[in-house]
Every structure is written in C-alpha cells, then in structure tokens.
Amino acid sequence: MLLFNDVRMVYGCLLFIIGHIFGWFAGNSQFVWNYWQNKPILATVLFGIPAGLAFWYGTKFCFEATGELWSVRFTAAVFS
What is the pTM of this model? Predict the structure, then answer.
C-alpha cells in the first residue's frame, strides 16, 4: 500500500535528494573547480560513498513505506 504520508517515505525522499546532490558533486566538481580536475579517486570516495549510502537507505525507507520496488524507482526518478 502506497503511503506518502508515512514518515519513512519522507526520510526516503530526503535521502534521494541528498544522494542526487552528492552524485552531482562526484561527477561535475571536476568541471566547476580546478582543484578536482585530477582527483577522481578522492572525489569518488568523498562524494560517491555518501551518495551510495543515501540511495541505499532511501530505497530501504521507501520500500518499507510502500512494499513495492517499482514505486521506489519512480519516486527516486522524480527527485533526480
């Protein structure tokens, strides 16, 4: 059952937003700041790991709220 007023759904959506923000920095910081141009490993560790964890827990919370993975996928796409 889809429960968008469930607090777990809110937490999941917030984590998806945080994950997308970290993902943006992981991929685009090399073009925005000179410091990151030749530091792909550092950028991956500093931005990619938190992004992965945010998506992991965002998926977990949204799945607990809805019980369906398809709704989680569509919810994550909305916040991208």
Answer: 0.85
Of 52, 26, 21, 53, whose CA–CA distance to 41 is shortest? 26
**pLDDT at 72 (0 to 100):** 87
How far is it, in rounded angstroms, from Cα 34 to Cα 79? 28
Which tokens in the block code for residue 56?
């992991």
Find where tokens 């992981």 sit. 26
What CA–CA distance (Å, rounded) separates 23 from 27?
6
Q: Domain coordinates of the chain in residue numbers?
A: 7-78
| Start-to-end CA span in the chain (Å) | 23
